[in-house]
Write a structure and sequence with these properties.
The chain is α+β, with helices and mostly antiparallel strands and 94 residues long. It is 31% helix and 20% strand.
Length: 94
C-alpha cells in the first residue's frame, strides 16, 4: 500500500454573467503522486492569485487551468509500463 496525494486547487470564474467554480487543473485529467508533488502543484496557485481559466464555450462549466500539456500522459504511460515490467518479472504472468 502507498498513500497518494492529489493536488486540489479550487477557483471561481464567470462566463456570460454566470458564476462557476471548478477544481480541474488539467483538461480531462486528474493526477496524483507524492505529497511533495501535490504540494508543488498547489503552490503554483496561491490563494488570491489571478489565473487564466480555459473553458469550453459550448459548456462553460467544463474548465481547466492548464491545457495542451502531455507530460501527465507521459507519467501515466511510464507508470503502466513499470507495472507491466513488475508483473512480468514477478512470475505471475508466465
Amino acid at each position: 500500500m502507498q498513500t497518494m496525494y492529489m493536488p486540489i486547487v479550487e477557483y471561481a470564474y464567470s462566463v456570460g454573467g454566470r458564476d462557476f467554480t471548478s477544481r480541474s487543473i488539467w483538461d480531462g485529467t486528474e493526477v496524483s503522486g507524492s505529497q511533495s508533488y501535490a504540494q508543488s502543484i498547489v503552490q503554483r496557485y496561491p490563494v488570491g492569485r489571478t489565473v487564466t481559466v480555459h473553458y469550453d464555450p459550448a459548456y462553460p462549466a467544463k474548465s481547466a487551468l492548464d491545457v495542451g500539456g502531455i507530460w501527465h500522459w507521459a507519467l501515466f504511460v511510464a507508470g503502466v509500463l513499470a507495472l507491466g515490467v513488475a508483473a512480468a518479472t514477478s512470475g505471475y504472468l508466465f
